[in-house]
Amino acid sequence: MKKIAILCLMMFITMSTNVFAAGAINKDGYYKNIRLAGKVKIVENFGDIKVQVVTAFPDIKVKSVTSFPDEIGEWQFVDSFPDFTIQFVEAFPDIKVQFVEAFPGLP
User: Fold this and answer.
1) Is residue 99 scored above 60 in pLDDT?
2) Cβ pair 73, 36 in contact under 8 A
3) Does the keyword field hold Signal (predicted)?
4) What is the mean pLDDT of the chain?
5) Exposure pattern of 89-107 as b/e (b: 16+ CB <10 Å)?
6) How far apart are the C-alpha atoms of 51 and 56, rounded to whole Å?
7) What does each C-alpha distance from 10 to 2, 19, 104 come to in angstroms?
8) How many CB atoms lie within 10 A of CB 53?
9) 72 near 106, Cβ under 8 Å?
10) Distance (Å, rounded) from C-alpha 98 to C-alpha 45?
């Protein structure tokens, strides 16, 4: 009986660790099937992704570029024909971003 209790406790700890370790962005740089690279439009309401700007512990580091936003974390801000839209929020974001001048991507 004691062995079963210990086994159940170990399984619970393993499963809960995986849940807490899972981030909003997968290892390939996608958030809910949206590749976090490309042309981005900022909207006031109903954005594809709610974004909070932070200075520490981001989900992704973003570099604003003027052309060829091909790599994860490279965003070109546009007014038309975006790949996805973002809405800046102060609370309850989908993802947290830190704007950087170099080395964009997953931290």
Assistant:
1) yes
2) yes
3) yes
4) 87
5) eeeebbbbbbebeeebbbe
6) 14
7) 12, 15, 37
8) 14
9) yes
10) 21
3-class SS of residue 23: coil
pLDDT of the residue at 23: 74
Q: Read off the pLDDT of residues 11-41 as tens digits, 9 standing for 90 and up.
A: 554 444 344 445 799 999 999 999 999 999 9
**What is the pLDDT at residue 4?**
58
Distance CA 7, CA 1 (A): 10
Distance of alpha carbon 83 from alpha carbon 74, whole angstroms? 12
Q: Which two tokens stand for residue 25?
A: 């962005």
What pTM was computed for the model?
0.78
Whether residue 60 contacts residue 95, with contact meaning beta carbons closer than 8 Å, is answered with yes
